[in-house]
Amino acid sequence: MRQLRGQERVITANRQTSWAFADAFVAEDDALRWARDRARDAGLPSVSPGTGAALRLLAATADAKAVAEIGTGTGVSGIYLLEGMRPDGVLTTVDLEPERQQFAKQAFRAAGFAGNRARFIPGRALDVLPRLADGGYDLVFCDGDRLECLDYLAESLRLLRPGGLVCFEGVFADGRTVDSAAQPAEVLRVRELLRTVRESQELLPTLLPVGDGLLCAVRRG
After folding, report:
1. pLDDT digits (tens, 9 = 90+) for 47-99
2. Global confidence as pTM
3. Distance CA 29, CA 79 (A)
4. 22, 85, 91, 100: which has the fewest Cβ within 10 Å?
5. Terminus-to-terminus CA distance in the chain, angstroms?
6. Distance (Å, whole) CA 171 – CA 213
7. 98 with 128: CB under 8 angstroms?
Protein backbone atom coordinates (compact mmCIF):
# COMPACT_ATOMS: atom_id res chain seq x y z
CA MET A 1 0.00 0.00 0.00
CA ARG A 2 1.47 3.35 -0.97
CA GLN A 3 2.35 5.93 1.66
CA LEU A 4 -0.28 8.65 2.06
CA ARG A 5 0.93 12.21 1.71
CA GLY A 6 0.12 14.79 4.38
CA GLN A 7 -2.92 16.31 2.67
CA GLU A 8 -4.31 12.87 1.83
CA ARG A 9 -4.00 11.83 5.48
CA VAL A 10 -5.99 14.89 6.55
CA ILE A 11 -8.73 14.17 4.00
CA THR A 12 -8.90 10.52 5.04
CA ALA A 13 -8.99 11.28 8.75
CA ASN A 14 -11.70 13.92 8.39
CA ARG A 15 -13.83 12.22 5.76
CA GLN A 16 -16.61 11.05 8.07
CA THR A 17 -16.76 14.43 9.79
CA SER A 18 -16.91 16.16 6.42
CA TRP A 19 -19.70 13.88 5.21
CA ALA A 20 -21.69 14.56 8.37
CA PHE A 21 -21.20 18.30 7.91
CA ALA A 22 -22.31 18.13 4.27
CA ASP A 23 -25.37 16.06 5.15
CA ALA A 24 -26.47 18.61 7.75
CA PHE A 25 -25.55 21.67 5.66
CA VAL A 26 -29.12 22.56 4.68
CA ALA A 27 -31.38 24.03 7.37
CA GLU A 28 -34.94 22.69 7.54
CA ASP A 29 -38.12 24.67 8.18
CA ASP A 30 -41.07 23.93 10.47
CA ALA A 31 -42.97 21.87 7.89
CA LEU A 32 -40.03 19.54 7.32
CA ARG A 33 -39.37 19.21 11.05
CA TRP A 34 -43.07 18.40 11.62
CA ALA A 35 -42.97 15.71 8.92
CA ARG A 36 -39.78 14.26 10.43
CA ASP A 37 -41.39 14.14 13.87
CA ARG A 38 -44.37 12.23 12.47
CA ALA A 39 -42.01 9.75 10.79
CA ARG A 40 -40.07 9.31 14.02
CA ASP A 41 -43.29 8.74 15.98
CA ALA A 42 -44.31 6.05 13.48
CA GLY A 43 -40.88 4.40 13.49
CA LEU A 44 -40.34 5.25 9.82
CA PRO A 45 -37.03 6.28 8.26
CA SER A 46 -36.97 9.54 6.32
CA VAL A 47 -34.39 10.98 3.97
CA SER A 48 -31.58 12.98 5.52
CA PRO A 49 -31.34 16.74 4.93
CA GLY A 50 -28.43 16.11 2.58
CA THR A 51 -30.40 13.57 0.57
CA GLY A 52 -33.40 15.88 0.48
CA ALA A 53 -31.28 18.79 -0.70
CA ALA A 54 -29.76 16.61 -3.44
CA LEU A 55 -33.24 15.59 -4.63
CA ARG A 56 -34.35 19.23 -4.63
CA LEU A 57 -31.28 20.23 -6.66
CA LEU A 58 -31.82 17.42 -9.16
CA ALA A 59 -35.51 18.29 -9.59
CA ALA A 60 -34.60 21.92 -10.17
CA THR A 61 -31.80 21.06 -12.59
CA ALA A 62 -34.19 18.87 -14.59
CA ASP A 63 -36.79 21.67 -14.53
CA ALA A 64 -39.10 18.88 -13.43
CA LYS A 65 -42.81 19.22 -14.08
CA ALA A 66 -43.78 15.59 -13.42
CA VAL A 67 -42.13 13.50 -10.68
CA ALA A 68 -43.08 10.02 -9.45
CA GLU A 69 -42.18 8.96 -5.92
CA ILE A 70 -42.24 5.40 -4.57
CA GLY A 71 -42.68 5.65 -0.80
CA THR A 72 -44.56 8.74 0.40
CA GLY A 73 -43.74 8.26 4.06
CA THR A 74 -44.83 11.35 5.97
CA GLY A 75 -43.79 13.76 3.24
CA VAL A 76 -40.17 14.69 3.97
CA SER A 77 -38.78 13.72 0.57
CA GLY A 78 -41.93 15.01 -1.14
CA ILE A 79 -41.43 18.51 0.25
CA TYR A 80 -37.86 18.60 -1.04
CA LEU A 81 -38.94 17.36 -4.47
CA LEU A 82 -41.76 19.90 -4.70
CA GLU A 83 -39.40 22.72 -3.70
CA GLY A 84 -37.17 21.85 -6.66
CA MET A 85 -39.92 21.32 -9.19
CA ARG A 86 -41.51 23.93 -11.45
CA PRO A 87 -44.30 25.98 -9.82
CA ASP A 88 -46.84 24.12 -11.97
CA GLY A 89 -45.25 20.71 -11.37
CA VAL A 90 -47.14 17.73 -9.97
CA LEU A 91 -45.70 15.07 -7.68
CA THR A 92 -47.30 11.63 -8.01
CA THR A 93 -46.53 9.73 -4.82
CA VAL A 94 -47.31 6.09 -4.06
CA ASP A 95 -47.44 4.37 -0.68
CA LEU A 96 -48.96 1.21 0.77
CA GLU A 97 -50.23 3.06 3.86
CA PRO A 98 -52.92 5.74 3.25
CA GLU A 99 -52.53 7.08 6.80
CA ARG A 100 -48.94 8.04 6.05
CA GLN A 101 -50.15 9.95 3.02
CA GLN A 102 -52.53 11.91 5.26
CA PHE A 103 -49.53 13.13 7.24
CA ALA A 104 -47.80 14.03 3.97
CA LYS A 105 -50.84 16.03 2.82
CA GLN A 106 -50.71 18.05 6.05
CA ALA A 107 -46.97 18.58 5.66
CA PHE A 108 -47.34 19.75 2.06
CA ARG A 109 -50.03 22.24 3.08
CA ALA A 110 -47.85 23.51 5.94
CA ALA A 111 -45.01 23.97 3.44
CA GLY A 112 -47.29 26.19 1.33
CA PHE A 113 -48.05 23.86 -1.58
CA ALA A 114 -51.50 23.91 -3.15
CA GLY A 115 -53.51 20.70 -3.06
CA ASN A 116 -53.22 20.20 -6.82
CA ARG A 117 -49.42 19.99 -6.63
CA ALA A 118 -49.50 16.37 -5.42
CA ARG A 119 -51.39 13.26 -6.49
CA PHE A 120 -51.55 10.61 -3.77
CA ILE A 121 -52.05 7.00 -4.84
CA PRO A 122 -52.35 4.35 -2.13
CA GLY A 123 -51.22 0.87 -3.10
CA ARG A 124 -48.27 -1.38 -3.87
CA ALA A 125 -45.84 0.38 -6.18
CA LEU A 126 -45.62 -2.47 -8.67
CA ASP A 127 -49.40 -2.45 -9.01
CA VAL A 128 -49.57 1.33 -9.47
CA LEU A 129 -46.56 2.11 -11.66
CA PRO A 130 -47.77 0.16 -14.73
CA ARG A 131 -50.79 2.49 -14.83
CA LEU A 132 -48.62 5.62 -15.19
CA ALA A 133 -47.84 7.11 -18.60
CA ASP A 134 -44.85 5.98 -20.66
CA GLY A 135 -42.23 8.72 -20.96
CA GLY A 136 -44.34 11.07 -18.88
CA TYR A 137 -41.93 11.82 -16.02
CA ASP A 138 -38.84 13.94 -15.53
CA LEU A 139 -37.69 12.21 -12.34
CA VAL A 140 -38.55 9.00 -10.49
CA PHE A 141 -37.52 8.70 -6.83
CA CYS A 142 -37.48 5.18 -5.39
CA ASP A 143 -37.62 4.74 -1.61
CA GLY A 144 -39.58 1.51 -1.32
CA ASP A 145 -38.98 -2.20 -0.78
CA ARG A 146 -35.33 -3.01 -1.53
CA LEU A 147 -36.34 -6.47 -2.75
CA GLU A 148 -38.31 -4.77 -5.54
CA CYS A 149 -35.61 -2.28 -6.57
CA LEU A 150 -34.81 -3.96 -9.91
CA ASP A 151 -38.50 -3.92 -10.80
CA TYR A 152 -38.61 -0.22 -9.87
CA LEU A 153 -35.69 0.37 -12.22
CA ALA A 154 -37.46 -1.36 -15.10
CA GLU A 155 -40.62 0.67 -14.53
CA SER A 156 -38.62 3.88 -14.17
CA LEU A 157 -36.95 3.40 -17.54
CA ARG A 158 -40.38 3.14 -19.09
CA LEU A 159 -41.76 6.15 -17.20
CA LEU A 160 -38.85 8.54 -17.81
CA ARG A 161 -38.46 10.85 -20.77
CA PRO A 162 -35.02 10.87 -22.43
CA GLY A 163 -32.79 12.93 -20.15
CA GLY A 164 -34.93 12.11 -17.11
CA LEU A 165 -33.50 10.99 -13.77
CA VAL A 166 -34.01 7.95 -11.59
CA CYS A 167 -32.84 8.02 -7.96
CA PHE A 168 -32.66 5.25 -5.35
CA GLU A 169 -32.43 6.01 -1.62
CA GLY A 170 -30.65 3.80 0.93
CA VAL A 171 -28.24 1.94 -1.35
CA PHE A 172 -25.56 1.83 1.37
CA ALA A 173 -27.98 -0.24 3.50
CA ASP A 174 -26.34 1.01 6.71
CA GLY A 175 -22.93 -0.09 5.44
CA ARG A 176 -24.00 -3.64 4.62
CA THR A 177 -23.70 -3.15 0.85
CA VAL A 178 -19.90 -3.05 1.09
CA ASP A 179 -19.59 -5.45 4.04
CA SER A 180 -17.95 -8.75 3.05
CA ALA A 181 -19.95 -10.72 5.63
CA ALA A 182 -23.00 -12.75 4.58
CA GLN A 183 -25.94 -10.42 3.91
CA PRO A 184 -29.72 -10.80 3.61
CA ALA A 185 -31.54 -10.97 0.28
CA GLU A 186 -32.42 -7.26 0.26
CA VAL A 187 -28.75 -6.26 0.41
CA LEU A 188 -27.85 -8.72 -2.34
CA ARG A 189 -30.61 -7.17 -4.44
CA VAL A 190 -29.19 -3.68 -3.87
CA ARG A 191 -25.78 -4.90 -5.00
CA GLU A 192 -27.41 -6.26 -8.15
CA LEU A 193 -29.13 -2.91 -8.68
CA LEU A 194 -25.81 -1.07 -8.41
CA ARG A 195 -24.17 -3.40 -10.94
CA THR A 196 -27.10 -3.15 -13.32
CA VAL A 197 -27.18 0.65 -13.24
CA ARG A 198 -23.42 0.97 -13.55
CA GLU A 199 -23.24 -1.39 -16.53
CA SER A 200 -26.35 -0.15 -18.35
CA GLN A 201 -25.76 1.47 -21.73
CA GLU A 202 -29.04 3.33 -21.27
CA LEU A 203 -28.03 5.15 -18.09
CA LEU A 204 -25.39 7.66 -16.99
CA PRO A 205 -24.96 6.98 -13.24
CA THR A 206 -23.44 8.42 -10.09
CA LEU A 207 -23.51 7.41 -6.43
CA LEU A 208 -23.82 10.27 -3.94
CA PRO A 209 -22.55 9.76 -0.36
CA VAL A 210 -25.46 11.56 1.32
CA GLY A 211 -27.72 10.01 3.93
CA ASP A 212 -27.69 6.24 3.45
CA GLY A 213 -26.49 6.53 -0.14
CA LEU A 214 -28.31 8.04 -3.13
CA LEU A 215 -27.90 6.27 -6.46
CA CYS A 216 -28.80 8.55 -9.38
CA ALA A 217 -28.79 8.00 -13.13
CA VAL A 218 -29.83 9.94 -16.21
CA ARG A 219 -31.67 8.09 -18.95
CA ARG A 220 -29.73 8.75 -22.11
CA GLY A 221 -31.58 10.28 -25.06
Report:
1. 999 999 999 999 999 999 999 999 999 999 999 999 999 999 999 999 999 99
2. 0.93
3. 11
4. 22
5. 42
6. 5
7. no
